[in-house]
Amino acid sequence: MAALLYYEDVSEGMTIQTGGMTLTEAHIIQFAGLSGDFFALHMDDDFARELGFPRRVAHGLLGLILLDGLKNRAETQFASVASLSWHWNFRKPLFAGDRISGEIAVTAKRATRKPERGILTLDLRLINGDGDVVQDGSNLLMVRTREHSGNL
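Above: the chain sequence. Below: its structure as tokens.
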């Protein structure tokens, strides 16, 4: 069972490491089907090589959603209500076979008008198996407060 962090449990500077996973060809194909994004860079190795990549590149947004999933399966999780915004950077390509994991840091927190909720500012990094940051950015995450968690 994961440790669940409510707003009161979180402090600025806190960090969380996610587990890891291997990005597969199936992830890329399923994401293309779900999103409708069949751009040749993601589906055609020859086209990707023409653009200077060694093989086809996974969708950037696939990296973001996989990191969010890793966050939501980490040993320590936030008592989340909803993501409010994302600011995201794509630093390096992702490929099928890459092992990925995430690092999450709480950089700010603030109360809301509703006592049962607070907002965290998270800095997130998606890291490949070589230790390179391939994506990074920030997320505003609304979380529950412990005292009022039953009042949502």
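The first strand starts at residue 3 and ends at 5.
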